[in-house]
Amino acid sequence: MSSKVIDKIMSFLGIEEEEEEIQTPQPVVSFDRRPKVVNIHTNPQIKVLISKPEKFEQVLSICNELKSKKPVIVDLQKMDKSEAQRVVDFLSGAVYALNGEITKISGYIFLVAPENFDVTGDIKEEVNALYNLN
């Protein structure tokens, strides 16, 4: 009993006798469990939102989609020219703040893309060629 008291006091003071123990390594992976299978093709399908705002107040929903890392095609053909300019100016500021990109497709149609979305090629030329707008 006195050895237990001494052991407790020594343990409290941080003084412990070193005991040599031979430890056998334990297996890290148990063989009774099934290995986890991970699909390497996990690219989520990208959805592009098409927005046709009629009022300037609707631009906030476009910015929320942009903040959620989703690209948006904005069709401003139904808006007054001065309000459409305000929307483009607001979206340009939002895109700049979020390191995104805004691209004019044609007339009053714009692609607003977040930073994780790459836009390659000239969309304007591709749309014109697709619909024979030249």
Attribute tags:
134 residues, alpha+beta, Translation Initiation Factor IF3, 4 helices, 4 strands, 35% helix, Cell division protein SepF, Cell_div_SepF
Layout of secondary structure:
Elements: H1 2-13, E1 49-51, H2 59-67, E2 72-75, H3 81-97, E3 101-106, E4 109-113, H4 123-131
Parallel strand pairs: 1-2
Antiparallel strand pairs: 2-4, 3-4
Helix pairs in contact: 2-3
- Mean of all residue-level pLDDT scores: 78
Radius of gyration: 31 Å
The 3D shape can be described as elongated
How are helices and strands ordered from N to C? HEHEHEEH
**Structural class by SSE content:** alpha+beta
Q: What name is given to the CATH topology of one domain?
A: Translation Initiation Factor IF3
What is the total tally of β strands? 4
Could you tell me how far the N terminus lies from the C terminus, measured between alpha carbons in angstroms? Answer: 100 Å
Binned, the helix content reads 25-40%
Question: Order of strands in the sheet with the most strands?
Answer: 1-2-4-3
InterPro entries: Cell_div_SepF (IPR023052), Cell_div_SepF/SepF-rel (IPR007561), SepF-like_sf (IPR038594)
Family: Belongs to the SepF family.
Function: Cell division protein that is part of the divisome complex and is recruited early to the Z-ring. Probably stimulates Z-ring formation, perhaps through the cross-linking of FtsZ protofilaments. Its function overlaps with FtsA.
Pfam families: SepF
